Amino acid sequence: MKFTRRMAFAAGLAAVTFGLAPDIARADEVTKISFMEVIHSLFYSPLYVALDRGFFAEEGIDFDLVAGQGSDKVTAAILGGSVDIALAGPETTVYVEAGKSPEKIRIFAGLTGTDGSFLVGREPAAEPFDWASLKGKKILGWRVGSAPANFLREALKNAGLDPDKDVEIITNVAIPARMGAFLSGAADYGTFFEPDVTKLESEGLHVQTNVGQAVGEIDYTVFIARESFIAEHPEIVGGFTRAIARAEAWIAEAPEEEVAASLAPYFPGISAEELASSVTRHREAGVWKATPAVTPEAMTALQALLEANGLMPSGGAIPYERLVDPQFFEVTE
Hints:
Layout: H1 3-13, E1 31-32, E2 35-37, H2 45-52, H3 55-58, E3 61-62, H4 71-80, E4 85-88, H5 91-98, E5 105-112, E6 118-121, E7 138-140, H6 147-158, E8 168-170, H7 178-183, E9 189-192, H8 196-202, E10 206-210, H9 211-215, E11 221-226, H10 227-232, H11 234-253, H12 256-263, H13 272-285, H14 296-308
Parallel strand pairs: 1-3, 2-4, 7-8, 7-9
Antiparallel strand pairs: 4-11, 5-11, 6-9, 6-10
Helix pairs in contact: 1-11, 2-11, 12-13
């Protein structure tokens, strides 16, 4: 799905009530919930927009931003009951559903529709970029088994390359050292998230393409909650989803400078120009979802991606209804 289609759908969304079940009412008073995001990233900008513009407050929901620093930590916190709602990779629901935990979690809204990392190189990008041109090159990647590592491998496969033979992917560089390693010449190419992409550009390097565009629509980060929490607090989950829907629609069309102003309180130390550049890059790549709906097709594609990387639990594919609770949105093509 290209950005123009997302924009058109988001514009239509602004004129209608988001498709929540009619019996899921808004909360009458402010409720403080416990929330955790997997990491703090500009990739998740619609979440911070919803906070800054008061969309959560208007739904009677309040929470603090806490970064779990890893999907494993987020999963443990939400299963243990110390977190009510979390932002994490959708694969967490697959792992928990296939595991032995008596408590299960469900996706109730989506935030990002594909990988938001960008391939950066040392020369200006060819137009159009050809992934096959990476044959024989060295790429600075991410930890084996991580979402950005899986998506990079899929992008290479889609171009007819064998990730284990046709390229060399460096996977053992710690996250804080990645930019320094790349600037020092550790690889020909590397995949990075914002704001690192903009900072690398300022050092004379060049963005080649978005990884997600080469893979397609597979939900990358979603909002999850325990089944029991959803059953006991549908008004909170419904309100949370409404706030995210409004943010996704707003960020699709608002001027970059306005979006940057909303993001600034959550990213001190990053200039307004860098924030605006990040907004433009993400929107042009179409990585933010137009609505919170998570489709069966996306979950099927996710499980195929996990299987291709040897990460799918035994027992075969898990049905959509055991991973996603769709009562808070209408799946619309």
